[in-house]
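step=encode ok
step=design start
structure_in=
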């Protein structure tokens, strides 16, 4: 199962008592960052959840949004 399929909503993560740990990582190019952090969390035996979000960019060339994932730590 892919990270995208495992990802939950922000509301679900908050219900689990999780807090944001990473910045949004774009699905098209930055998922490896979340994957590496997950490996670190698993080595440390920390609980986590992956959250669906949106990466927003604002620049002189225009605003755009892309699907993204964040890693949240469950306390």
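sequence_out=
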């Amino acid at each position: 199962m892919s990270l995208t399929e495992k990802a939950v909503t922000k509301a679900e993560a908050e219900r689990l008592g999780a807090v944001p740990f990473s910045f949004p990582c774009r699905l098209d190019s930055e998922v490896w960052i979340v994957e590496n952090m997950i490996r670190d969390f698993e080595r440390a035996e920390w609980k986590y959840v992956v959250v669906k979000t949106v990466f927003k960019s604002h620049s002189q060339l225009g605003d755009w949004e892309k699907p993204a994932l964040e890693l949240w730590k469950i306390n």
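step=design ok
step=annotate ok -> DSSP finds three helices and four strands in the chain.
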